[in-house]
Amino acid sequence: MALDASRAIVRDGIAVGIATGAYGLSFGAISVAAGLDVWQSCALSLLVFTGASQFALVGVIGAGGAPALAAVSGLLLGTRNTLYGLKVAPMLGWRGWRRGAAAHLLIDESTAMSVTRTTREHARVGFLSTGISIFVLWNLATLAGALAGDSLGDPRTYGLDAAVGGAFLALLWPRLDSTRNRVAAVLGAAVALCVVPFTPSGVPVLAASVVAVGMALMARDDQPVVES
Amino acid sequence: MIWVAVLGCAVGCYLLKLAGMSVPESWLANPVLRRTADLLPVVLLAALAAVQVLVSPGPDGPELSIDARLAGLAAAVVALLLRAPFIVVVFVAALTAALLRL
User: Fold this and answer.
1) Separation in Å, CA A33 to CA A21, A46, A86, A153, A202
2) Which DSSP category does A64 fall into?
3) Helix (H, G, I), strand (E, B), or coil: what is residue B102?
4) Pick from A96, A37, A40: nearest CA to A71
5) Cα separation of A26 and A13, whole Å?
6) What is the mean pLDDT of residues A195-211?
7) Which of A144, A173, A133, A149 is nearest to A21 (CA)?
8) DSSP-assigned beta bridge partners for residue B57
9) Contacts of A71 in chain B (CB under 8 A)
10) A223: pLDDT strictly greater than 50
11) Mean of the per-residue pLDDT values of chain A
12) CA distance A31 to chain B (A)
């Protein structure tokens, strides 16, 4: 019985891995279109291994932003993994090198596939099967996408610049599940666009983060934000 | 310089993950900090999408402009409303812009 349940969790984990790995293809192609080489694209997937941060980094570089600003954009998007870690660490219960290794696999999907489990065993199986299958497929797909993108000519001909916008929107979409988040998204986009004429590339995106801080300061604890 | 950004982002993102798995949950009890961390991905992804689609390099630096990319984004919205998977959304955005540029 317990073994059957574990098998089902592994199967789900691999299914999520295949679905997520597939968009590594688009990351690889977009990354070389933004001006990174195949090695840099692969290094991002191997070492950064958190999709939104990787897309942010190559998006800012592709738009002509300074590499340092690109890295900071990636880091700010990586802060959500800290929140995930706080949630899953007590469930996984790993210490020492195991925790150090597991931290690299801490992403949206591995968190989602482990926090819902009722036992530590199942949480670990869900975390590892999802995390490892995504890691393997995401990296293979990045390499394939980067090589394919490299052999194309001008990325604009294939609409790859529009693909990057589509990728950011697709990453944003599932988070637009509350009025608060929808307001934050509109304000963030507005602030970024307003400062575009006055700042170098890369700065507008970082400027938008003041919206997150501002809205966090203004929300009152005794009055929970209305969810629609 | 790109390599420095790649490696810097890699080290930083790993440390952010490790910190989450290593500190007690009470360390992030501060509600303002928690809400900020919650809202950051929403705000940044929206800003990235907007800038990616509406900004072009101009003679005096980056400037706002409307072109085939916006049509690509509109097509992506339709794909998302139809619950298309990520890769399809990205492909539809690219295809729409590419066709408009023919």
Assistant:
1) 19, 19, 36, 9, 17
2) T
3) coil
4) A40
5) 21
6) 91
7) A133
8) B62
9) 4-6, 8-9, 12
10) no
11) 90
12) 12
Over the range A173-184, which residues count as b (16 or more CB within 10 Å of their CB) and which as e? bebbeeebbeeb
Chain B stretch 73-92, residues whose beta carbon is closer than 8 A to a beta carbon of chain A: 73, 75-77, 79-80, 85-87, 89-92
Q: Which of A1, A46, A5 is nearest to A129 (CA)?
A: A5
| Residue that has been written with the tokens 């001909």 in this structure | A157
- Secondary structure (DSSP) of B13-72: HHHHHHHHHHS-GGGG--HHHHHHHHHHHHHHHHHHHHHHHHEEEETTEEEE--SHHHHH
pLDDT, tens digit, 9 for 90 and up, residues B49-78: 999 999 988 777 788 999 999 999 999 999
Convert the pLDDT of each residue in A151-198 to its tens digit.
Answer: 877 777 888 889 889 999 998 999 999 999 999 999 999 999 999 998
Beta-carbon count within 10 A of A92 CB: 23
Domain ranges of chain A: 2-156, 176-228
Check residue A105 and report its DSSP letter: T
Can you tell me the mean pLDDT for A206-223?
84
CA distance A133 to B99: 35
Supply the pTM of this predicted model.
0.85
Task: Measure CB to CB from residue A212 to each of B43, B63, B73 and give the nearest one.
Answer: B43
Contacts across the A-B interface (CB distance below 8 Å): 322
Q: What is the reported pLDDT for A226?
A: 45
* Closest C-alpha among A169, A203, A178, A191 to residue B35: A178
pLDDT at A136 over 60: yes
- The answer for A35, left when phi > 0, alpha when psi is -120 to 50, beta otherwise, is left
Torsion region of B101: left, alpha or beta (phi above 0 gives left; psi -120 to 50 gives alpha): alpha
pLDDT at position A18 is 85
Task: Please enumerate in sequence order all residues whose Cβ is within 8 A of that of B36, keeping only pairs 6 or more positions apart, or say none.
Answer: A212, A213, A216
Q: Whole-angstrom Cα distance, residue A173 to residue A48?
A: 22
Specify whether the CB–CB gap between A30 and A58 falls below 8 A. Answer: yes
How large is the C-alpha radius of gyration of chain A?
Answer: 19
